[in-house]
Amino acid sequence: MKELFTTVLLLFFVIGSMLAWLSRKYLGKGSKEFFVGGYRVGGLISAMTYAATTYSAFMMVGLVGLTFASGIAALGFELAYLASTIIILGSIGPIIWYEARRKGWVSPSEMLSDLYGSRIVGVITALLYLFMLVPYVAAQFKGIGEIFNSIGLGYEYGVLFAFIAIAFWTLIAGLWSVAITDAFQGLWMLGSSMAVIIWVIAFLLPSSGVDYNTFVGILTNSSSGNLLSFTWSPQMFLGLTVPWIFFALTNPQVVQRLYIPRDEKAYTRTVRYFALYGFIYTVICVFLGMAFRCYIALNNKEVEAVLLKNRDSVTPYMLTLSHPLLAAIVYVSIVAAAISTANSIVLTVSSSIVRDLYERLTTKLNEKLSKTISVTAILILLTLASLIGVMRIGYIVELSVISSAGLLPLAPITIAGIVKRISMKKGRGLLYPIVSILVGESILIYSVIMHGVSKALTAPLILSLPSPIWILLGSTLATMSILIVDSK
Amino acid sequence: MKTMMILAILIVILFYIPMFKWFSEIMMGLTKFGVALYWILLTLLSILIGFKILEKMFGGGAR
User: Fold this and answer.
1) Could A84 and B43 be called an inter-chain contact, meaning their C-beta atoms sit closer than 8 Å?
2) Strand partners, A460
């Protein structure tokens, strides 16, 4: 298995590196080219980079395990994200796309800075991204390290591989190399998930004589209750879905992807292909979790109990039953999902650092210095994330999960700013977003103190409602005053 | 456009109805995969509405 995984991984790295190298021909000069591809990326590549950036290793590992343990509610959670994202991409997305090229936005923090007519807003947002997303990248490094460890290649080598792949594929041509390798990785992720589902349906389930009636019977009478019904607490469902419903507006790596399609046709294609990709990938991952629960419940009750206690082990255990080549391809797809998410975050957060902490504050723009800052920012972010990853800090994964709630106050700020679409008067423009962010982050910190990092999103906070509802309400109320006061 | 947006928001809210036990039981009574099919149907509807809104946005020149 070790040799097979190394061979497939090497093949993956060589193809990815060749694509990254070839993408250099598209790269022009300046930060607009490096970070947003000069706003001239085609529809298919835009869609694939959007999908690969959005869907991390969580899908094949976390979602499969979550469905295995808690049933069909996981489908509602993930599809609520997809449905709201397509609505956001159809309604607010085109305005962001249009305004980005009209005003020359490169970073998402620059967008907020422009909408509110305050450079301080951009600086604060850039720092918020840095604080919230470095643990998220570190969690991706940790995931790759764990895969290497489980195969016997050594945890540290996994982190090192991730560092090299991300650094190389990001620095070689910026957005161009990231987007093209993302497209390759997105296809690998979808293709391998299809291969696993075919193996499960055609070989694994029939090997135990599972037919439709057995499938339904086992899942409705499982040890965790009726898995075809809604088994989550309302707080858990609300707490996990609310931050994700606004993900397309709050997470900078996907907001920046809205800038890049070259024209209206390419933008429309991006939304269409992403919808198709997201729907297929989600349904496959959820079905895998359900099907494997059925198989294990029928064949090995002891393993079922162990996997229920450690649901992230569901996919790795499932793969031990498959052909080693299929297992190696799927393991590499998990590595791909982690790399494609991490490299986009690193590129986007660096763009915020370069644009909001240097280019927009200087009077004389030096292209060479700008490039040096970009490269340095990428390398520092990667080093920081990999060091946190190597230290194997236990709560890093939990911190990365709550990052979605930490960025939630940016949703009402973005929506209000886009709706108004006029630069606010000085002072006013600074006040509302800052108050909104402060209110939202204070509620999150309060929830972390009350319930701990692991339950900060899903435990009832006030009136039995979880913290994301209060973060959204609090920051929306702070932002609402923009629309009321500013229109007077 | 306004109607489409209201409809879109309504569909996202409808994702939360299965949190009520009586609703999941009704859906499960129709078919064992009732809850799953309900969410899949809502997703397909919201994708269609999202596409329609996008069409109108570009038709009206996203400004």
Assistant:
1) no
2) A466
